[in-house]
Amino acid sequence: MSKPRVTVWNEFRHEREGGAAEECYPEGIHAVLAELFESRGFDVETATLDEPEHGLTEAVLDDTDVLTWWGHAAHEEVADEVVNRVQTRVLDGMGLIVLHSGHFSKIFKRLMGTTCDLKWRNEGERERLWTVEPNHPIARGVGEQVVVPEAEMYGERFDVPAPDELVFTSWFEGGEVFRSGCCYRRGSGRIFYFRPGHETYPIYRQTEIRQILENAVEWAAPENADAPSFGEVPVGPERRD
Amino acid sequence: MSKPRVTVWNEFRHEREGGAAEECYPEGIHAVLAELFESRGFDVETATLDEPEHGLTEAVLDDTDVLTWWGHAAHEEVADEVVNRVQTRVLDGMGLIVLHSGHFSKIFKRLMGTTCDLKWRNEGERERLWTVEPNHPIARGVGEQVVVPEAEMYGERFDVPAPDELVFTSWFEGGEVFRSGCCYRRGSGRIFYFRPGHETYPIYRQTEIRQILENAVEWAAPENADAPSFGEVPVGPERRD
Amino acid sequence: MSKPRVTVWNEFRHEREGGAAEECYPEGIHAVLAELFESRGFDVETATLDEPEHGLTEAVLDDTDVLTWWGHAAHEEVADEVVNRVQTRVLDGMGLIVLHSGHFSKIFKRLMGTTCDLKWRNEGERERLWTVEPNHPIARGVGEQVVVPEAEMYGERFDVPAPDELVFTSWFEGGEVFRSGCCYRRGSGRIFYFRPGHETYPIYRQTEIRQILENAVEWAAPENADAPSFGEVPVGPERRD
Amino acid sequence: MSKPRVTVWNEFRHEREGGAAEECYPEGIHAVLAELFESRGFDVETATLDEPEHGLTEAVLDDTDVLTWWGHAAHEEVADEVVNRVQTRVLDGMGLIVLHSGHFSKIFKRLMGTTCDLKWRNEGERERLWTVEPNHPIARGVGEQVVVPEAEMYGERFDVPAPDELVFTSWFEGGEVFRSGCCYRRGSGRIFYFRPGHETYPIYRQTEIRQILENAVEWAAPENADAPSFGEVPVGPERRD
């Protein structure tokens, strides 16, 4: 199988506001993720909110096998037309990896059908990400747990459909748990929600987290299956009079 | 548990056009379903597309435990505001039973996140509805199979998320199969998609089909669980410095 | 629906050995559970390992709607014949609730097909049991989390099939997580694995835990569905020459 | 990834009895399957019931990535010790593909925990195998349906746990349906039950069926994940006094 073509989408607002986010990701979260995927030999493009059509034109999506999505403060600024376009491509087979605060993005809520709400608290708590399904492709080479030294906490109830496969569950210092690695199949596409990551913690520079992201891209890449056909069909082949 | 309050929603267009649908359901599909649920002792209201707000005001939905949905030709005429309202109520716990051609309703596509597309052919074929999970509450008293003498065929691929529980699978004379009884949990609500039924076949008068519909209402009725809380939470109870 | 008939099975060895277990459950864990279920109006019997046939004769099982299982030190002493008998009854519709160290019982391993292994540590850690599916019948009236002041820790990887429904996930003081409330459907029967409980902690006297156990019995009670038929069937009803 | 090492296991009794089975598979079903997998470049061995230890020694299983299992008339002759050995290897990561009448094998019942019973009728009916999940790796290149001209019918209720993924559903001329392609994850291993095939029909010579079998082997091959660890663990890393 050829290496997947990845488009890294980033809201890219926090990192241009001169605070902790800019310090942590001076060129944007997308730059760090793009560098990661390039280092794995994937074919990588980036796209951000403030580009025309948010950088997600038909042409870009047609050339994308897996789209990663990071957004936080400006979910509402994403145009519905672009959300429709991404949803259509996912249902046609494009993989989608939704990162951290992307749980509240229009595209994730659209594909899940639920509020995708959760509990949260940002105090730089330690997170322990436990591998619940060690034989899942997304857990390959990850080990039994990953310790994230400082993280924003997300806690249950996470209001999503029960995942088709639950790969990771997080423990937080403050007393909460969270289903942090959730696989979904929707239409011909695969979706992975992955909790870790935040604009002010260097989580996307952490080795084990990068391993998971690489695995997730490979898992989410399309099978290039024949598209199923729909609509009216002629007289049933078995029908006899 | 008290008997559920059911609102039967119907597009109610075909049955006023003077053809086979009017012959089959002269007072509307909703009238037949309402009579069924009343005969079971449920508290029943009806609502139709051409009423103000399609009959689905906040007040009506607040008093509804389970909403049944039949639509076919006018899905696009359902106002997005009403779709939003119904979605919110389902996620808050109201049950939803989506009937036959309701697979293409805005509300079902909204809650599933997929196209909900399928194959179809209307030739009055025999359908055999097989019980795949005989111990499911929705299969109670139904037996191993239900023969529907004449039906519109729906065939796989049915483009929905894999159901949380698959209760029935249909066989069609013409050679197709279909996942005809699909359970989903979304938010605090339960959703049942049930394939049989059509505006020109008296399927909703058939005893076994009525048994399934009664069962489905009872299954979909809310647990009256405490609503989960979401949003920012204070310092973690376990956090120590 | 009439109240379920519950048989509470207990290994009943630790509590007769004069140590912490006897102090905690002087008349046996089964006595405390029996008292709980009786207080809910259920019809309750108890059975223990050292009775003939472990107290689980055909007659007893035939009169049981839901069997609860607590064992720890003597799993291997349970006769295979009795395990076969219990498995058959579960597949025929009897509910089974497997408690805590019962994860390693012959009957649970038999029904799961896996090792059912896990990590553990007994240091009296605090456990926080989070409700992942607040609208599940087993979570009724339980609230968002239950704090167990002192518990033996069980940690992931828990080597079971992915549960059909995951209701609770535990957080432990020492840093682990665990899928603590797992629902399975096997044959015509329902199985609930529930982690909390131990012979030296008064967990089965805790109000919220008792609420969950009551809910679990009600959920696991059989639907009294018609048994499906199996084996050779005559010429297909649709077969034409 | 290197090509998987496949061991094709066959009961190999029917084909030596001089009737229709011998005509259809003169050198045994295993010979036809072995030839298929060799033609795909896999590393293939065969093993049969009447060999010592049924040909499934520790050494053979240690060198096997995916085991395929065909049995029918002599399930009871398979030694429990060998069943234990195969189960252990599956839980440790070996893939298992259970074919047709293998539904009643000791190893499949052991791994499922249920009776695995079903309805059947052997009249050479036409079977239509519909692809329910077209984007599943096992459906790659298969198309929307596969017509098997003559088959033994298997009908629901199929008494297995709800599959983790349902890939194919069959339609039969006589009026039945069946969940014919069922994926399970158990321990670190993957299991695929595939219905088509019979000792007197040349189904394993059919192109589309062979494509599915090749896909299934690739899907079931182990990830070579790190084995999870189990048992007592030391003081929790987060425990503070």
UniProtKB/TrEMBL annotation, chains A, B, C, D:
<protein>
    <submittedName>
        <fullName>Trehalose utilization protein</fullName>
    </submittedName>
</protein>
<dbReference type="InterPro" id="IPR029010">
    <property type="entry name" value="ThuA-like"/>
</dbReference>
<dbReference type="InterPro" id="IPR029062">
    <property type="entry name" value="Class_I_gatase-like"/>
</dbReference>
<dbReference type="Pfam" id="PF06283">
    <property type="entry name" value="ThuA"/>
</dbReference>
<feature type="domain" description="ThuA-like">
    <location>
        <begin position="5"/>
        <end position="220"/>
    </location>
</feature>
<dbReference type="InterPro" id="IPR009381">
    <property type="entry name" value="Trehalose_catabolism_ThuA_prok"/>
</dbReference>
